């Protein structure tokens, strides 16, 4: 497994690993960009949001290789984007995007799409054949974004408590090396649409 971080195709931005010593930087970024948290949690980032993001554990019993926390710094060493990516989650070659946030000031200019493409290229070069993620139903900006990048819904999970809200989560996937939905679901049975609501 390569330890290299994604490259950035945006001039002036570079990727770093968000280690515990960067917790205060990540917390400032979350607090300065509340749109995501208001949309999915119904409230701004909590005072310990960055701590939980850095130290949070994969659910017990779920197989994985590594949890990557990636930050993107501008020329002034300010955090302007971040991604939480887990490699080989639930099955080999299935990578999960837990969170992908770009500063609100950079919305609408294509930065999010460019950084995502860099992230996808990096994941594929490190062995990912599939990407999966969850999108809150009704978070229209995020739903449009992921659909435009080729993600397809496999199922929904209802009554997911997130902050002050109870949401329906759309579980989505994307093949990076060809492959069908059925092939993906054979690897990750919990994403089968006919299963009872799973948490």
UniProtKB/TrEMBL annotation:
SUPFAM superfamilies: Acyl-CoA N-acyltransferases (Nat)
N-acetyltransferase domain sequence ranges: 16-177
Pfam families: Acetyltransf_1 (PF00583)
Protein name: GNAT family N-acetyltransferase
